[in-house]
Amino acid sequence: MVTFEALRWLTHHNLSVSMLDYDGSLISTIMPPQPIRGDLRKAQVEAYLDMKRRLVIARTFIEAKLERSGQILDWLKESHDVDKEIRRFKKEANNLTETKTVDHVRGVEGRAAEIYWQAFQKAVPLKLEFKTRSTRARNRQYNASDPVNALLNYGYAFLQSYVRRGINMTGLDSSLGFLHEDKPAASPLVYDFEEPFRWLVDLTVLRLIEAGAFTRNDFYFTAEDYRLRIKPPLLDRYAGLLRQQFNAGVVYGGDRLQWDTVILRKSQELARFLVGRTNRFELTAPRPALDREDSRALRDKIRSLTSSEAKKLGIGKSTLHYLRINAKKNRPFKIYAKVRNKIEPVLEASPANFNDDDSTCARSVHAFSNWS
């Protein structure tokens, strides 16, 4: 239960309240009062009507999306064979600079997205029956028929709540988008701003998949419309992981910001660009660090590491045993920093002298439990 007094307090402190249904649909959003910005509204309309300026802004949104999608693909290739898709994706992404119209930008984004989801699919076990999220049949929103799309839909609605808040607090008109063209009720500018930040949801879902943290039993079909929904135990865990991902810190402009704050900051930067206070609007910065501990090269090295080589590195037999077990599994795993520091110089083919004590290492090689 939420009282009116609690809602009043939240809006007084400029905190929005978003209600999401179990299928990921955004039921309602309670926002703080939107600032009245006549100059900004006028500038936004003028930029929308100016095809050259609109093209620049639309291309900016997709440029950032493609860069982040490329990072996700690089993250995926450490554990899955997606090299072919990466080459095709990069080739398509390079066409963005040659686009002459907003329609051309959408075309590049659509074709690149098809390739991206083909690579994404390789990370999903067949039993989860994930087909794709093609641009033609891109699972009409909230109408998922498989667990992965149900998680993605919910995550994108979660993202949408942050985007709506940023646009509202800045004073931008959500009904005027530069990339998307839908009916005003669909808030095209919200969809525009979602594009560069969808990776936050994609990465969270991929980590859940790789950790084997859910099964089809964590979902159910509704009787009235036969939609797939997430059961409360998994939903609570998933929402917590999304909050954790959005609250992760990143350095931007000399400050350490959370990603939800970055979304607000980028809305403000677009506003300044539209009214002429700055002559540049970009979304590729800040760049997240999507490093993973269980890289393909590290797994291969662990599997090929002999007992005598491990001994020279100061790695005990029990530690090597658990390392080999985890390296053979498809699931992600973490390595105790002391052990990792001993193996990484070997990967880089640089000489090093290791004399650290290894008495606690065996207990520190464990499954990637944070996501399960």
| Number of extended strands | 8
Total of domains: 2
CATH first level of the largest domain: Mainly Alpha
The strands making up the biggest β-sheet line up spatially as 1-2
**CATH homology-level superfamily of the largest domain:** CRISPR-associated endonuclease Cas1, C-terminal domain
Helices, by number, come to 14
Explain briefly what this protein structure is.
The chain has 14 helices and eight strands. With 372 residues, the chain is mainly alpha-helical. The protein folds into two domains: 4-274, Up-down Bundle (Four Helix Bundle (Hemerythrin (Met), subunit A)), CATH 1.20.120; 296-371, no CATH class.
How would you describe this structure to a colleague?
The chain has 372 residues and is mostly helical. The protein has 2 domains: 4-274, Four Helix Bundle (Hemerythrin (Met), subunit A) (Up-down Bundle), CATH 1.20.120; 296-371, no CATH class. 51% of the residues lie in helices and 7% in strands. It contains 14 helices and 8 strands. It has helices at residues 4-12, 38-49, 51-76, 83-93, 102-121, 147-170, 188-194, 199-210, 232-246, 259-274, 296-304, 307-313, 317-328, 337-347, and strands spanning 17-20, 26-30, 219-221, 228-230, 249-252, 255-258, 333-334, 366-367. The strands form 4 sheets. Strands 1-2 form a two-stranded antiparallel sheet. Helix 6 crosses helix 7. It is globular and about 75 Å long. Residues 136-141 and 349-372 have low confidence and may be disordered.
